[in-house]
Amino acid sequence: QVQPVESGGGLVQAGGSLRLSCAASGRTFSSYNMGWFRQAPGKEREFVAALTGTWSGDNTNYADSVKGRFTISRDNAKNTVPLQMNSLKPEDTAVYYCAARARGGYWRLGDWGTYDYWGQGTQVTVSS
Q1: How far apart are CA 88 and CA 78, in angstroms?
Q2: Is-contact 30 55, C-beta < 8 A?
Q3: 30, 71, 123, 126 — which has fewest CB within 10 A?
Q4: Residue 49 burial (CB < 10 Å; 0-12/13-18/19+)?
Q5: What's the whole-number mean pLDDT along residues 90-108?
Q6: Strand, coil or helix: 13
Q7: CA distance linking residue 29 with residue 33, whole number of Å
């Protein structure tokens, strides 16, 4: 079992950058698929980025809206999953959640319903 805890949110101007971090406890952290999702006011939760467990290659997947701007990675030594966000836009404003799932592989990697453990979220606000 892992418990994700997000940090690094804040207020930034359009075009700027932020780096979110997800710290997850658990001895088997490297085997978990990890994902970032976001939810803006009045909107449904949506997929941002995810990567598979290390044993399956740390393969990544991104939502089209963030591809080329955001980068997800994993540091197994620190049990963290950073999300580097560049060229931020006002439409990136949302609460960002980190999630983990025990089921590995690429199956429905962007489906938030397949994730078992969630953090409390961190607010990201991008001003125009």
Answers
A1: 26
A2: yes
A3: 123
A4: buried
A5: 93
A6: strand
A7: 9
